[in-house]
Amino acid sequence: MSWQTDCKGKVKTLKSQRYFQAIAPAAVLLALAGCDRKGAPPAPPPQQVTFVTLKAQPVEITTTLPGRTEAFEIAQVRPQVSGVIEQRLFTEGSDVTAGQQLYQIYAAPYQAAYDSAKGQLVRAQAAEMTARAKLNRYGPLVRAHAVSQQDYDDALAAEKEAQGEILTAQGQVERAAVDLGYTKMYAPITGRIGRSLLTVGALAIANQNSNVAIVTRLDPIYVDVNLPATELLRFRRELAQGRLQRNGDNTASVSIQLEDGTKYEHPGSMEFSEVNVDESTATVIVRAIMPNPDKLLLPGMYVHAQLMEGTDPKALLVPQQAVLRNSHGDPQVWVIDAANKVSLRPITVGQAIGTNWLVTDGLKGDERVVVEGLQKIHPGDTVTPLDAAAPAKAG
User: Fold this and answer.
1) What is the rounded distance in angstroms from the CA atom of residue 224 to the CA atom of residue 387?
2) For the whole prediction, is pTM greater than 0.70?
3) Rounded to 10 degrees, what is the CA torsion of 271, 275, 276, 281?
4) Where does the Multidrug resistance protein MdtA-like alpha-helical hairpin domain lie (predicted)?
5) Parallel, antiparallel, or unpaired for β 302-319 and 283-290?
6) Do 197 and 90 reside in the same domain of the chain?
């Protein structure tokens, strides 16, 4: 025997009419009582969330910025005298050393001018010898009143004039020697020379505006990056507060990534920062010096420079997935207290380090921060916390 009834006491199905008549009043009363006792559903179990426990740890603080390479030294080769290029004594694109001859200008006119100047010097020296000998003879004679004082004074003036002619001639010789030397064009610095803009047979003009070649020193090489002024202030403030510890000789280490994404193998160091802030960009130029023994880096290349600012000995890192943003864009995280209740905590974050944010304010060591399940919880909820660092149970 079975029956079904709704909560209004109406019997819908029965299999034994006689038996039903006997027990119907009691059964209907029991059914109605059961409907009256229907209450609220049982409370759901606490929401399960995964958390990480924050630990203070030493972390290297870095800043990655775009930059450009600049030559350590650059020299423009220009002719100092006019003449026809007689020889080119280097290979374009090769390395040259300071003092190495690069060009030979036709030197015959300058050699002739030098020889002529030397002849003038010899003539002046001969005239000075004659004037000095005459003056030496006139000395005793004037004391003996054999010659007049005027004659002696004239001899003395002639000897002084002859000495002046020697000095003038010497200057002309030196000038002619300089011009003759300029017919040989030398590398002013050690470096790599580019293409030659004048060929053999071309006319070089003294002090022309255009250069004939450029020598660039590539090892070492500079990397100039634009650092926001606020970052520079933060960097110096954290150093003063002792949050950042510098290494070695108290210079910041720099590494770079090339434009194709590969990492440059030689680390460098930060040399200096500009003393003025660019008003249009609010940035400061920071210059790093990089070794370049293989000449891989060339001036004008675009790179990403990573400045190793130092080490924060008590840094707190929170996974990026745990950080939410409110309507104003401010970061906040869910924190689990000792009673396994959650609360939303505003925090201050610095730079991204890998998949984590560097927390500068709002959290402390040993606090538990929710990393999974944070979309299903509300302030004050009791949760079932699972440690993300705990090994997963088998089966």
Assistant:
1) 45
2) no
3) 30
4) 114-183
5) unpaired
6) yes
